[in-house]
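# nightly structure sweep
# worker-07 picked up a monomer target from the shared queue
# config: single-sequence mode, recycle default, output format = structure tokens
# input follows
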Amino acid sequence: MRVKESPIRVLVVDDAPFLRGMVKYFLSYGGYEVCGEAGSGKLAIEMFQYVRPDLVIMDIIMPDMNGVEAVREIRNIDPSAKILMLSAISNKPVISLALEMGASDFLAKPFKRDAFLQKVRQVLRPT
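# output follows
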């Protein structure tokens, strides 16, 4: 008898409900399970500790605490956390800072479903 693999669990973090909904739809289409969502960096850290996702998808610009600061805190909690950053701000210094703080990769907004799912697969690929 073959045991069914459990789906990859993803925490979605963005202050825009529309974008969270779109990301959740794309993830569902790709066979991933959304285990939580947050609209700020502070809430992302709390949710991360509670749900322990396999992947975090996080916006950079958010209220309370931005995504770069939240990445640093999440990586302090779990140095092996996989975090895909999303942002409409795609200038090199912002991307470099996000990666320096521990983000696994970066995807510029707007994005299409297939490009998004390809980036998710790349981030989840074992290193």
